[in-house]
Amino acid sequence: EDQVTQSPEALRLQEGESSSLNCSYTVSGLRGLFWYRQDPGKGPEFLFTLYSAGEEKEKERLKATLTKKESFLHITAPKPEDSATYLCAVQALSGGSNYKLTFGKGTLLTVNP
Amino acid sequence: ETGVTQTPRHLVMGMTNKKSLKCEQHLGHNAMYWYKQSAKKPLELMFVYSLEERVENNSVPSRFSPECPNSSHLFLHLHTLQPEDSALYLCASSQEGGRAGEQFFGPGTRLTVL
């Protein structure tokens, strides 16, 4: 069974204090790993797709990296508007479905001014 | 309207009521999804429709009944729900094939079952 574990559950940072969120996964062949951001009262918003170990993607202050067992979301010099819950999800190669994502519980990030 | 819209945004219903949730996507996608989001739990995939055919049904109780009349609209019909069904119900859409993991979500319907 595919599993995704995100840590920490919650993270509080001061504005400008860089840090990383972790996503550990177990999957029977990785088709893709996805990062989403969810603001309170809204649906998740797609951020990145990573397909293979060693791959990196960047967007503004965010950089996602991937190894064979985990992914990191690095946040450089965060701002209060980066406060949100960050969700990680995996899509398996086997099992037939292109559509099924297995999500982690998320990391609630709070950036204080 | 742009993106994925959902109505109503909030719904309170009794255990014997029948109600429906509506989702509409304006992105030209061919796949649509229903998810359930409960506190302290990961997002749970309920149903997937691709080109108006149901392709995933993740052991969801029969009191939840999906309908996809065309590639832009998705409904979730609710009847005789239980209090533990109270949650945020999210609709999403995506392209087919290799882009199916890049899903675009609506704002959700917050459902409370009394």
Describe it for me?
The complex is a heterodimer of chains A (113) and B (114). Helix content of chain A is 0%, strand content 58%. By secondary structure, chain A is an all-beta fold. In chain A, the strands form two sheets. In chain A, strands 2, 4, 5, 9, 10 and 11 form a six-stranded mixed beta sheet that branches. Chain A is globular and about 45 Å long. By secondary structure, chain B is mainly β. Helix content of chain B is 0%, strand content 56%. In chain B, the strands form two sheets. In chain B, strands 2, 4, 5, 6, 9, 10 and 11 form a seven-stranded mixed beta sheet that branches. The interface between A and B is medium-sized, with 24 and 29 residues.
Secondary-structure blueprint:
The complex is a heterodimer of chains A (113) and B (114).
Chain A: E1 3-7, E2 10-14, E3 19-26, E4 30-38, E5 45-50, E6 56-59, E7 62-66, E8 70-75, E9 84-92, E10 102-103, E11 107-112
Parallel strand pairs in A: 2-11
Antiparallel strand pairs in A: 1-3, 3-8, 4-5, 4-9, 6-7, 7-8, 9-10, 9-11
Chain B: E1 4-7, E2 10-13, E3 18-25, E4 31-37, E5 44-50, E6 53-57, E7 64-70, E8 73-79, E9 87-94, E10 104-105, E11 109-113
Parallel strand pairs in B: 2-11
Antiparallel strand pairs in B: 1-3, 3-8, 4-5, 4-9, 5-6, 7-8, 9-10, 9-11
Q: Helical amount among residues of chain B, as a percent range?
A: under 10%
Task: Spell out the helices and strands of chain B N to C.
Answer: EEEEEEEEEEE
Return residue spans of chain B where pLDDT drops below 50 for at least 5 consecutive residues.
none
Number of DSSP strands of chain B?
Answer: 11
Count of DSSP strands of chain A:
11
How many DSSP H or I helices of chain A?
Answer: 0
State the end-to-end distance of chain B: 32 Å
Provide mean pLDDT of chain B, rounded: 93
